[in-house]
Write a structure and sequence with these properties.
This protein is mostly helical. The protein contains twelve helices and no strands.
Length: 315
Amino acid sequence: MSLNRYLALLTGVALMSSSAFAQEERLSRRELTTETYRLQSTVTEIEDRSLTLQRQNADLALKVRDLESENAQLVGRVETLQFQLSQSREEMDRLQSDDAEIGRRLEQLDQQILALSGVVAEQNRLILDGQIVEGAGEEVVAALSRASTIAEGGVGTNPSASVQTTGAAASAPGSGSLGTIAASDLPGSAGPLFADAKARLLRFDYAGAERSFRAFLENFGDDPQAGEAQYWLGEVLYQQQNYNESGSAYRDMIQKYPDDARAPDALVKLGRSLRLVGQSDRACQILDTLGTRYPNASPVTLNLANVERSRSSCD
């Protein structure tokens, strides 16, 4: 190959290489420009998203402040409601305490009414039989009328005042003994002792009446009026809320003096005492025997038995 042709070939190769390099450089620049545009577009998109997030954060911050304000208001309301609830509970406790006190006083009134009912029934029986209590006079009759009003549910009457009117007459030795014969007819010291017990009972001196009735029964257990004394002993023990001993006294009365006119009442009140010491089932068993043991019990006694059956939740 001649020199000239060799140089021409080298020149051609050089020109071709230069052209290829130039073309490759143009391609690289174009790709770089495209990538730059893409990156700029991405940056712009990121900036737009950042602005959007900033606006959203600002909105969320406002919402958080609003929620914090509402939460503070709710906390205030809750504290107010808690205070009102506390006051309501205190008021409820006070009302419950008042209800308990009212119930206790009503129970005491019921007890006094029951005691007066027995006294009134006994005196009415004497009046119907024409055996007006000796020495009592119009004062005792008026007192019995007031006591009858209390026993039948009269309102606004003080039972203590009604009975105390009879105190002087009742304590007199010849005034009778809540029963069938005059105290003056009892032998020896039995009359004054029974009269003293009776007078204390009518004055609501239950502790004193208990002592006198116990003394009477200890010394005159075979006396015709021992059954009556045993009955009233159970009654004064009940009035002192000594329900266990009251029940024992009524039980002794039924066992020792089953033919006494007050035995049916004693049986019902034995059931009452059992109920009050938590033996309602036993009370129901006792009350169920009333019709068999005392078929001639008075309507008043039967009504009292029905009341006790209801209170004891008997079948």
